[in-house]
User: What shape does this take?
Amino acid sequence: MRMYDIIMKKRNGGELSKEEIEFFINEYTVGNIPDYQVSALMMAVYFQKMNDRETSYLTRAMINSGEIIDLSPINGIKVDKHSTGGVGDTTTMVVGPIVASLGVPVAKMSGRGLGHTGGTIDKLESFKGFKVDMTIDKFINNVNTIGIAVGGQTANLAPADKKLYSLRDVTATVDNVSLIASSIMSKKIASGADAIVLDVKAGSGAFMKNDDSAFELGKTMVDIGSRLDRNTIAIISDMDQPLGNAIGNILEVKEAILTLKGQGPEDLTNLSKKISTYMLLLSGVADDVEEAERLIDNAIESGDAIRKLREFVKAQGGDVRCIDDIELFDKSKYALEVRTDSCGYIEKIKADDIGIAALILGAGRETKESVVDLAVGIYLEKKIGDKVEAGDIIATIHANCMDKAKEAEKMILNAYTISDNKVVPDKLIKGVVTKDGIRKM
Ligand code: URA
Ligand code: CA
Assistant: This one.
């Protein structure tokens, strides 16, 4: 088999066989095929696309390129969740304790990652003393006894995807549905998930800028799940503005704690409940949506959900006093109020730009070596649809450096669009894709 022929076949619109896909993934992973040939193939895929069969072969080949975590010693159906990016998305911190308190085993391998804020591990390190390093035995034992554990990613998961994603990133070939879907699904399946709930974001702050492409991505991932025997459901949700009000690690953890106590922002609460609902269904803990919703409301109202967070943080060495009193978390040196000089209604909040402003403050990593400042970030006081008068505070910047705060202030003011007319925000949840089809809401 020759890479040249595979490139030409795809360039001319042909369907690649399982053998051809396995060949290029395996040989590329070990370094036998140069980047320029794979770049050409990715560009051919971008224009000619892949069908569902090719996409599932690609996913399988990427899973098999590295280690596959065996979570079979954990009792029950392991349901994982994944969000396709977005700004200020704290749902994992909310959903994990809710579903764990109801008996869904949560065994999460998380990374630190790059981006506007830290990954789940950075956020959890807001609890002083919290540790993710543990043996696989302890990890499994914690899930079997407490119901939830978060470990650092040490395994060599889907290395083919790592190479391919870096290459796509610099060759303008990221935004192809088959390539995104196989990339995400390969990592989830390699990390041991039996079933997967996806939160696919649509809007200005997401990969998928419009609803149609988000539904298509959701459908493609659900189809991969079916072909690879992993029951998968995709929720399509709005990302035209950041989710919740907090962007930044400690700020988001505080917001997650409030949400688990039933006092969180409406959008974060509703999306977290929706994701939890489908996790309960896929795990078999609930038989239908109504039962799941009832169980989730009860977990929050009874305090079971917040107690589960406490138990989990304690088991991994974290200081739990700040769960009881969120004022005990570290605070930044400065809190700078951002005021608008317009009056009207908030029409848009460019999520990307808010994310970059948080990054400038130090909430995320620009490079792998960057150190995350857990206390800094942005709190959005106004969201789409809110009415404002000139002089009103639209956001608060939490910073440890005044120069950076001033820079973030300019960006935040530019990220907001204020309209004279009343604005009705888009629906947060646009629909659900299951193996039975698409249901728009
Ligand atoms: N996230 C991923 O993990 N892979 C993609 O290709 C795009 C987003
Ligand atoms: Ca929208």
